[in-house]
Design goal:
eight-stranded mixed sheet; 19 helices; binds 5'-O-[(S)-ethoxy(hydroxy)phosphoryl]adenosine; single chain; alpha/beta; globular; 630 residues
């Protein structure tokens, strides 16, 4: 490929990588997708199974409530499993798993299909059908994937709650989604300890009204409370008649809701992002195939958690749609020693590793000797997601883990986008720290307050100017908020909430969130969730949370707390408050630091000005203070 001279440090793809890649010429593919956008996506959709073909690829008649593949009927779970059963993939390994304690399980496509059908039958016996919500709260175990696919098979809507969240976070999500059934594991192993997920769920259920039945998957075997008439062991249900393994698939309209995934946004409670069967299926399928250059013989490992969008799109749905073999690992990367991941890569011959900058930085800290003790030569491609990757970590990942041979796919996307949006492909020249350019066909921009495109290398707001198939369809139960939050700032365009700059080569560099979202170790949290947890403590009158740069976590949470009259701000109380947030929201939300203060900077309308707190903590200029009241 003839390359014009590019600015900055550039890593060119090797001839070998280009020759073998699905996409050898990115510009050509992009040109094709730009010129015939709907045709491009229709061609991808054709590669999947539709019970009835669509009449229209994109319906823009009710913006911003876009519809894709209108009139078509399909089912994503059918495309993940059934379609492979009539081919040789029937016997192919779909999923294999290792527990933190060394347990091992594996499932061929044939076997996985049976397990999913059985789970679907169990849910059916509990009255779950089309449109019903089912909440799933588990560690990283295969049954989590079975449960998601079982819901999809029935046309039910799953809502997975990350296993690192705690009582109040789970309660809120159960209530908002009005879930009929909760699927939970008794516990999960994290760094050698058992996290008592069922215990947390019991506490959340005591506050939640809609859940009729609870399916409990045994993972750790520790003693749990089983509420008669409400709680059932999964393995017992499997052995009963409702656990039979034949289950008719629901033929669903392309726009049928597939899942809700709660995520933090600007102000207020977490909101439920809604994705649908048809468009999400086409988007995750095509993006995974092209970006990670999926090959039949690959062993692919996305080390994210299924409880976040990365796990939904690229542990569960995308990989099964492409028919690849994927690996799931339960535990932490450094348990019992910092070579656990490298050992797994060597042991299982992993070809593609997809993880987050925070994990890379955490592993880098232990030095090169740990990975170098292992044969990592099976790796062909690496990936990163969740937050900007600092060039130093990028280069370590490239040099030490990728032996200088594996291109790094730095994928920028969001819960809302469902699929990769800014991403390289293996044939694309890379710059450490940049996700390169938008996925073929997309139109994105970096604009100023007035919506004008900023000059190269200037910072601005990242927006998306064209709908895409895997886009969220709405916020569940709150379409107004969907319109206001994403489509109103620059009418007709999607507001990402990130700031970015674009260099002279058209490469995007993400700077960070410009709203009330804090990315801690790549996990997305909202200031409001942390603040309301603090305020729910009897000693606290008011609280504000901000994110400050942290070497390993990217950002760490710092809180400012006004105590109630007469309460003294002792170190012990600060510690209690940290624990309280951990109990309510989850361990990842525990503040790094708590400052007791007498007042908080507010606007005249009473909104806390977090940006002022942040500037003060960082010792920088707080900018425009004209709206500050005190
Ligand atoms: C951030 C995660 C820089 C960004 C898939 C975005 C990134 C938010 C990257 C969405 C990346 C994600 N480089 N920043 N490669 N990927 N982000 O919804 O701020 O958990 O808006 O989805 O993560 O987080 P979410």
């Amino acid at each position: 490929m003839a390359q014009k001279k590019m600015s900055g440090e550039v890593f060119l793809p090797s001839k070998e990588v280009i020759e073998k890649a699905h996409v050898k010429n990115w510009d050509e593919l992009n040109k094709r997708a730009q010129e015939d956008y709907e045709g491009f996506w229709a061609a991808e959709a054709e590669k999947l199974h539709w019970f009835k073909k669509w009449d229209k690829v994109l319906d823009e008649s009710n913006k911003p409530f876009y519809k894709w593949f209108v009139g078509g009927t399909t089912n994503i779970a059918y495309n993940c499993l059934d379609v492979h059963l009539t081919t040789w993939r029937r016997n192919k390994l779909a999923l294999f798993w290792e527990g933190e304690n060394g347990d091992f399980k594996s499932y061929s496509y044939y076997y996985l299909h049976k397990y999913v059908c059985r789970f679907a039958n169990i849910l059916k016996s509990m009255g779950v059908g089309k449109g019903d919500r089912v909440t799933i709260y588990m560690g990283r175990v295969p049954e989590l994937a079975f449960a998601m696919l079982a819901c999809a098979r029935l046309g039910a809507i799953h809502s997975v709650v990350f296993g690192g969240f705690s009582v109040e976070a789970l309660h809120e999500r159960l209530e908002d989604s009005k879930s009929k059934v909760l699927i939970v594991s008794d516990g999960s192993y994290v760094r050698g300890k058992v996290v008592d997920l069922k215990g947390i769920a019991d506490e959340a259920l005591a506050r939640a009204a809609t859940v009729e039945h609870v399916v409990v998957v045994k993972r750790t075997g520790h003693a749990v409370n089983m509420e008669p008439g409400r709680d059932y062991w999964y393995h017992e249900l499997c052995a009963l008649p409702m656990g039979n393994m034949g289950c008719e698939v629901e033929q669903l309209d392309a726009e049928t809701p597939l899942f809700l995934l709660y995520t933090s946004g600007t102000t207020g409670k977490p909101k439920a992002i809604l994705h649908t069967h048809g468009g999400y299926m086409v988007g995750t399928y095509a993006s995974l195939k092209y970006v990670f250059d999926i090959r039949e013989e690959d062993r692919y490992w996305c080390a994210a958690d299924p409880g976040w969008i990365t796990g939904h799109s690229y542990i569960v749905y995308g990989p099964l749609l492409t028919g690849v073999t994927s690996f799931m690992y339960e535990g932490a990367p450094t348990h019992p020693y910092p070579n656990r991941w490298w050992q797994l890569i060597e042991k299982y011959g992993i070809n593609i590793l997809y993880t987050a900058p925070t994990a890379i930085r955490g592993l880098m800290k232990y030095g090169d000797a740990w990975p170098q003790r292992h044969d990592l030569s099976s790796l062909r491609l690496l990936g990163t997601v969740g937050e900007p990757i600092n060039p130093e970590a990028w280069k370590w990942y490239h040099r030490v883990i990728g032996r200088g041979k594996c291109p790094i796919m730095d994928t920028w996307w969001q819960t809302e986008t469902g699929m990769f949006m800014i991403t390289p492909m293996p044939c694309v020249p890379l710059k450490p720290g940049s996700g390169t350019r938008p996925f073929p066909g997309l139109i994105m921009d970096v604009v100023n307050e007035d919506g004008e495109t900023v000059k190269p290398n200037e910072e601005g707001f990242l927006i998306i100017k064209r709908p895409w198939p895997a886009m969220m369809r709405t916020i569940y139960n709150d379409p107004e908020r969907y319109v206001n939050q994403y489509w109103s700032r620059y009418p007709g365009y999607y507001l990402t909430g990130d700031s970015a700059r674009r260099d002279e080569d058209g490469y995007y560099w993400i700077i960070g969130r410009v709203d009330d979202v804090i990315k801690v170790s790549g996990y997305r949290l909202g200031t409001a969730e942390i603040e309301s947890a603090l305020v729910s403590h009897t000693s606290v009158a008011e609280a504000a949370a901000i994110g400050l740069p942290h070497e390993l976590k990217g950002n760490a949470i710092h809180c400012f707390v006004i105590l109630k009259e007469g309460v003294e701000g002792t170190p012990q109380l600060a510690d209690d408050l940290r624990k309280h947030v951990g109990h309510e929201v989850g361990p990842i939300a525990k503040p790094e630091h708590i400052d007791f203060v007498k007042s908080l900077p507010k606007t005249r309308s009473g909104k806390i000005m977090r940006r002022v707190l942040k500037a003060k903590a960082l010792g920088i200029d707080p900018g425009n203070l004209s709206t500050l009241e005190e």
